[in-house]
Write a structure and sequence with these properties.
Blueprint (H helix, E strand, L loop, with lengths): L1 H40 L13 H6 L8 H15 L7 H22 L5
Helix pairs in contact: 3-4
Length: about 120
């Protein structure tokens, strides 16, 4: 009789322990799946936000296609010789050219790396 009680309670004990292990394994599997889904959903942000293409600024400097940084600076120097206020040009036009150059350089450096800083 005692052997039957011990055997029954031992079987119950084993079943309870196995149920605990199953529950722990299921919880661990659920945690792993949740972590994996979070990794899949993670959005990676770059150091810089994307810079919109300054079409008007490129046209203001006389470009119809995307120039190199060197070509942009060369064109700005050429245009600034005639539009600089010290050379008889309009201050407003020179400011517009300088702003166009700044926007274009920001865009080109954002797309091609840091360039010169």
């Amino acid at each position: 009789m005692i052997a039957e009680i011990q055997a029954t309670s031992f079987d119950d004990f084993l079943e309870a322990e196995l149920a605990k292990l199953d529950a722990a394994e299921n919880a661990a599997a659920a945690e792993r799946e949740e972590a994996a889904s979070l990794r899949r959903e993670r959005v990676v942000y770059s150091a810089r936000p994307p810079v919109p293409i300054p079409y008007e600024a490129f046209l203001r400097l006389g470009f119809t296609e995307e120039p190199s940084i060197e070509a942009l600076e060369k064109r700005f120097r050429k245009l600034s010789k005639t539009s600089h206020p010290d050379r008889g040009g309009s201050p407003e036009v020179f400011r517009e050219l300088a702003e166009a150059k700044r926007k274009c350089l920001e865009y080109l450096r954002g797309r091609r790396g840091s360039g010169r800083d």
